[in-house]
Amino acid sequence: MDINLLVKLTARAWSLPILAHLNRGVPGRQAPLLAATGAGRTAFAASLAHLAQLGLLERNPGHGHPLRPEFRLTATGQEAAAMAARLIGTVSGTAQDALLRRSWTVPILALTGQPRRFSAIRSDLSPITDRALSVSLKQLEDHDWLRRDLDLSQRVPFPIYSAANLGAELNRAIGLEGG
């Protein structure tokens, strides 16, 4: 999975939980998925439509029988669902799972497996604004998912960000090529 698809995937709060539950075997029908995720109906429906638009989820053409799922994963969706299950499994049981549903958390953690400058992160996440990146970095740092160090080797010192603690585990769970 590339960083652009990861950014699009995490644009909706419930996309990762839906994919994770489908990967774990929750039936691909709206009621069981809605109960498993705990999402509101409107946000859930928007996330389902978003996943279908990305080509990760499709309506099952054989739906109609009570045992046939209404939604099923595509081939690309199966890869994304496995990654989502790893991510959700890493934070399950902690009070920090809401942070994982925020738009920029997963893409930032995917890029900070190696120490990165603010400008390098911003250039790889092209649609992000400086403010959104700053706020996201601060939140991740406050939860100890990200470490901020100062590089004093240059004439003008600058901060370098790298995934730490649970953030480093999440980075490994994402498994982004080149991240």
TrEMBL record:
Coiled coil segments of this chain:
none
Q: What is the originating organism of this protein?
A: Ruegeria pomeroyi (strain ATCC 700808 / DSM 15171 / DSS-3)
**Which residue range or ranges hold the HTH hxlR-type domain?**
102-174
Sorted alphabetically, which keywords does the UniProt record give?
DNA-binding, Transcription, Transcription regulation
Q: Pfam families, per this entry?
A: HxlR
Native organism taxonomy? Bacteria, Pseudomonadati, Pseudomonadota, Alphaproteobacteria, Rhodobacterales
Its recorded name reads HTH hxlR-type domain-containing protein
Q: Which GO terms describe its molecular function?
A: DNA binding
